[in-house]
Amino acid sequence: MTSVDTANDVEQLAQLARAVSELRKQVAQRIVGQDQVVDGVLTALLAGGHSLLIGVPGLAKTLLVSTIAEALELSFNRVQFTPDLMPGDITGTELVEEDPASGHRAFRFVPGPVFANVLLADEINRTPPKTQAALLQAMQEHQVTAAGKTYALPDPFFVLATQNPIEQEGTYPLPEAQLDRFMLELRVGYPSKEEEEAVVERTTGSRAAVIRPVLDAVALRGMQQLVRRIPVSKGLVRAAVSLARMTRPQDVEAPGFIREYVEWGAGPRASQYLVLGAKARAAMDGRPMADLDDVKSVAAAVLRHRVVTNFSAEAADRKSEDIVAELLRGREWGG
């Protein structure tokens, strides 16, 4: 089945929309505001993708991720990335064990924190590329290879990474290959004055919010399959592919400002995520078909970490998000 075309699917779609609404309510018990970030994380989860959360310290990024994992009744591990973190600290390592009776020694693999449904990679850019690369196989193939053996990760599996945009001393920028594995880059901004007052009232009192699980792993996997069955038109696919291709300065469809300010544009994975993200957004609203507005709603988060600017952009103080925003304002791609 390749589309939502049965009464059962329509009912499942309604259940998905109700579950998303309840998830938002559960998260709102601990997280004030940040509605776009919460929706972004839920979009990635339903599409089966990973998310990179960028924001200054103290904006509840870690609390948001752990709360969503709790509301989804998923196993959750957190890794604080530091310069001395080794790949085995994430993936796991083999230990030598001796049988007391026979004296025989054998290796036993001890799984690392990556063996969870949700892995929070806190301040991922604070560890060297060798350790960052330990996540590549896990993120792409949902498995880990250690000492010649391959181990499957739990299903579903998500990496939610955080990054501090201020402190860059002693950090290691993520390689483009790893950035491309993140479906969405989500910007966590400061709360409004009213939201900050609500945060202070909640966090300085004695009441502790109790999060009620809304979905488990089995239900979430079913919803991910339902999202993939959401139909899209040929026109929407053409628009998504056109939008991704327009970020590439070598492409004939690229506007002049892309050729001037961009070194490398988004690859085919961006086109896939634009469509998957649009399907997830439609499902979250209970709609049986995605449209161009759904593509536009996820486009900035899909594209901005995949666009590599050049020296001219740096000289003109043009960042990737500015360039993507200008591209989305245009009508050439179908938006």
Structure description:
A hairpin with a 6-residue loop joins strand 3 (92-98) and strand 4 (105-111). The protein has 335 residues and is an alpha/beta fold. It folds into two domains: 1-83 and 113-229, Rossmann fold (3-Layer(aba) Sandwich); 232-335, Orthogonal Bundle (Helicase, Ruva Protein, domain 3). The mean pLDDT is 86. It has helices at residues 7-28, 35-47, 61-71, 87-91, 129-132, 134-141, 176-179, 193-203, 217-229, 234-245, 256-261, 268-284, 292-303, 311-315, 320-329, and strands at 50-54, 76-80, 92-98, 105-111, 118-122, 143-146, 149-152, 158-163, 182-187, 262-264, 308-309. It starts with 6 loop residues before the first helix and ends in a 6-residue tail after the last helix. The strands form four sheets. The chain has a five-stranded parallel beta sheet with strand order 2-5-8-1-9. It has a two-stranded antiparallel sheet with strand order 3-4. The chain is built from 15 helices and eleven strands. The protein is globular and about 75 Å long.
List the helices and strands and how they pair.
Blueprint: H1 7-28, H2 35-47, E1 50-54, H3 61-71, E2 76-80, H4 87-91, E3 92-98, E4 105-111, E5 118-122, H5 129-132, H6 134-141, E6 143-146, E7 149-152, E8 158-163, H7 176-179, E9 182-187, H8 193-203, H9 217-229, H10 234-245, H11 256-261, E10 262-264, H12 268-284, H13 292-303, E11 308-309, H14 311-315, H15 320-329
Helix pairs in contact: 2-12, 9-12, 10-12, 12-13, 13-15
